[in-house]
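Below is how a single chain appears once it has passed through the pipeline. First comes the sequence as given, then the structure the pipeline wrote out for it. We keep one example in the README because the format questions we get most often are answered faster by looking than by reading.
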Amino acid sequence: MLDLDPGLMIWAWVTFFVLLIILYKVAWKPILSTIEKRENTIKDSIDRAEKAKEEAESLLEKHTEMIKKAEEESQKMLKENRELAEKSRQELLEQAKENAENILNKAKAEIEKEKDDALYSLRSEVADLAIAATKKIIGESVDETKQKSIINEFIQKMPKSSQH
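Resulting structure:
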């Protein structure tokens, strides 16, 4: 069995406590300071990470808001451009209608003028034919100016344009 020697036991305890005191003086303080430094470093890293996270969230919120504003602005610009395009289209249609009406009115006026010119020319020819026919029928020359005034009076009494 095991024999315990009290002297050896005391020396073992004394050696243990001396070694403990030496370790406390020599190694314990550096170990604690290293642990404390490491703890502070980890704490600082966590604080910096939280700050970075808050800044990132703030930036994300700002960017999200900017994107939203940009989308709203682009939608507004699209709407304004559509309205402007519609307005331009309406103006062009109105201008085209106005031009078409002007061309139609000019054409009608020109046709009316041509018709009046043709009627005047026809009346003159009818008057000349009537005078010539009268000369042939009567066989003698009649006063042409008197004959023309009679025919012109008759033509003036005729309707100016035939209405269908």
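The chain has one domain: 26-157.

See the next section for the split statistics.
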